[in-house]
Amino acid sequence: QVQLVESGGGLVQAGDSLRLPCAHPGRTDRPYGTGWFRQVPGKEREFVATITWIGGFTYYADFVKGRFTISKDNTKNTVYLQMDSLKPDDTGVYYCATGLPRSGRSWPPRNRDEYDYWGQGTRVTASS
Question: Fewer Cβ close by (within 10 Å): the C or N end of the chain?
Fold first, then answer.
């Protein structure tokens, strides 16, 4: 099984930044892509961003508004979510998820059922 470990969450003030790493320890091959979802109070888990391991194609949810950046480091088997200009509405639990290669994929993969393995989440709190 693919092991995913998120970290980097914490308590910050509105306007601050956080960098969330998603590690894939013990893995030498590459899945199709890795994405970030979040669950905020009163809402279902929602798509944030995704990146493909081959090609590095990225896609972002509309609410990011240029504030978040997803990237990867192949040598470290790690995907990062850089979050700038955090707002109180960004408060929630952020989950890393990996989708395995499969035929007939569409772009972008922004649905939960397009991902196969999930981390346990890391909590982000942006206070006003």
Answer: N
Query: What is the C-alpha separation between 62 and 125, in angstroms, rounded?
Result: 20
- Asked if 36 and 45 touch (Cβ cutoff 8 Å), the reply is no
Instruction: Express each pLDDT in 65-105 by its tens digit.
Output: 799 999 999 889 999 999 999 999 999 999 999 998 888 88
Query: What does the block give as tokens for 106?
Result: 């569409």
Element spanning 63, H or E: none
The number of beta carbons lying within 10 Å of the beta carbon of residue 6 is 23
Closest CA relative to residue 111, chosen from 43, 42, 44: 44
Q: Which two tokens stand for residue 37?
A: 């979802």
Query: Residue for token digits 């669950």?
Result: 39
Q: Go through the chain and tell me how many residues it has.
A: 128
